[in-house]
Amino acid sequence: MKEGSGYVIFECYQEGDADKIARDVDFRGLIFARQLFVCGELLKELTTRKIVLLPLLTS
Q1: Residue 23's pLDDT is what?
Q2: Which residues neighbour 21 within 8 Å (Cβ) at sequence distance 6 or greater?
Q3: pLDDT tens-digit series, residues 22-42
Q4: Under a CB-based contact definition with an 8 Å cutoff, are residues 36 and 27 in contact?
Q5: Which 3 state secondary structure label does DSSP give 21?
Q6: Is 18 exposed, middle or buried (0-12, 13-18, 19+ CB in 10 A)?
């Protein structure tokens, strides 16, 4: 991760909570939210090389 950058993990424990967050949170209204990535499990071995295509896939 580059200096001055960061990320947030919304970790959901109850079934349906991820859907509720997706419906109720206005991600466009967050100050620095540029990308949204949803996954089923925490991705521990994710490298910059592996996420290059994310902006293309989320467009």
Answers
A1: 86
A2: 10, 12
A3: 888 887 777 665 666 666 666
A4: yes
A5: helix
A6: middle
CB 37 within 8 A of CB 17: no
Res 54: pLDDT: 53
What is d(CA 5, CA 19) in angstroms, rounded to the nearest whole number? 26
Residue 31 is predicted with a pLDDT of 65
35: nearest Cα among 1, 6, 3 = 6
d(CA 43, CA 4): 21
Question: For residue 40, which amino acid is it?
Answer: G
pTM (predicted TM-score): 0.42
Helices (H), 1-59: 17-24, 54-58
Beta strands in the chain (DSSP E): none
- Report pLDDT for 9: 76
